[in-house]
Amino acid sequence: MSTERLRDTDKFPHGDNPDAQRLPALRLDNVVRWANPALPLNFTVGKPTSIPLFFDRATSSEIDLEARSGHNRSGDLGKTFFRDTDGSHLYRDIDIKGCGFVDIHDEQRVMQWEERKGSPYQDYLGLLDRESAEHDTEMSEKFTAWGIRTHRSAAIIDLKELPIYDKEGTHLASLEELRTSGWLSTDFEPVIQIRAFGTKARIGDLFDDSYLFLDKMERALADSINLVRYELHRKTFSLEEYLLWFAESLGKSMGIMHKHEYVHKGIGPQNITLDSRIVDLDSVRSRSDGPSTWHNDVPYDSDGARITLMELREAIKHQMLLEKSRIFAGQSMPNESTITTGYMESYWRACT
User: Fold this and answer.
1) Which of 4, 28, 156, 209 stands the most exposed, by the fewest C-beta atoms within 10 Å?
2) Cα distances (angstroms) measured from residue 176 to each of 53, 72, 99, 122, 191
3) Comparing C-alpha atoms, which of 246, 281, 287 is closest to residue 266?
4) Alpha-carbon distances of 87 from 1, 2, 144, 217, rounded to whole Å
5) Among residues 264, 227, 241, 51, which one has the least CA distance to residue 154?
6) Which residues contact 42 (CB under 8 A, 6 or more apart)?
7) Residue 25 half-sphere exposure, CB side, CA atoms within 13 Å?
8) Close Cβ partners of 113 (under 8 Å, ≥ 6 residues apart)
């Protein structure tokens, strides 16, 4: 699947999603708008794809998607190790965004997509607009080319219909019908975005209620540390080494982004993955987009990154204190000052 053969496949850190649930899904009428030529995935522009594209309320189905707590409008297609076509970047988790609104803690679980109440934008729960998907895609390609750790957009898929749920079941309606009836704005173009990550798990996931029980947090952290170890071609990778690498890696990514005069405007635990990738790039803006706020946006980004680093450290510290910890007990951890110094030194080297 790439120009560079992957070796020792039996040693790949395949991981799992400790809080995930598999839910019924639908195939919808669609056409592939854009496919990333740098990723060896089977999407053809101008042709439909047969993958499941939307969550369904049915009690059972021949096809399904995996839903995670806190990731309300995205689902997981699966895990498969591959590199991009030049062999430079490694990916594993593949997800799908814009596939309906899901809350796995709610009895209903799959909610009806609908206009977001009180939003200043024409926005819909569970749906993704073409403009947002294309901006995220554009930024992920720029960031990757500059050496910033991020996800990749694999494909953007135009939807030609959407589901309506009622007591009688699921009904599919064309976009024309939905716009005529007022369900959907005429200027909102719903799409599906296929994304590739190392690990999709975010730092913010560690603070979700579902991770505060049993060994879910430990499993997510151990999987991410093992994934980074594999990516760096390391035989061993201690907790201390992971945290120092994470701080330096994030500092480098933030420094490169600001050097190129871009700001994320939303850096926090929900958009930094456990393998130190900056994701959810639809909020990214250039200095030219908002010159009047640039000098406030840069420190806001940096503060968000540093706070997120401390939250990661606190999550691990909490896990280490648990008597039942099978992986982290007895390991050492760098102090806050060391982590902050590693981040700042890496940031300034990349930024100047």
Assistant:
1) 209
2) 19, 26, 19, 17, 15
3) 281
4) 10, 6, 13, 31
5) 51
6) none
7) 23
8) 100, 101, 124, 125, 126, 127, 162, 163
SS3 category, 280: coil
Print pLDDT tens along the chain (352 aa): 333 444 444 455 666 666 678 899 999 999 999 999 999 998 999 999 999 889 998 877 889 899 988 898 999 998 888 999 988 999 999 999 999 999 887 777 899 999 887 766 668 999 999 999 999 999 999 999 999 999 999 999 999 999 999 888 899 999 999 999 999 999 999 999 999 999 999 999 888 765 554 467 788 888 999 999 999 999 889 889 999 999 999 999 999 999 999 999 999 999 999 999 999 999 999 999 877 788 889 999 999 999 999 999 988 887 776 655 667 777 888 999 999 999 999 999 999 8
In angstroms, the CA 66 to CA 63 distance is: 10
Domain residue ranges of the chain, discontinuous segments joined by +: 9-197, 203-351
For 60, the token pair is 């059972």
Element (H, E) at 303: helix 294-321
Q: At what angle do helices 336-351 and 294-321 cross, to 10 degrees?
A: 150
CB 12 within 8 A of CB 230: yes
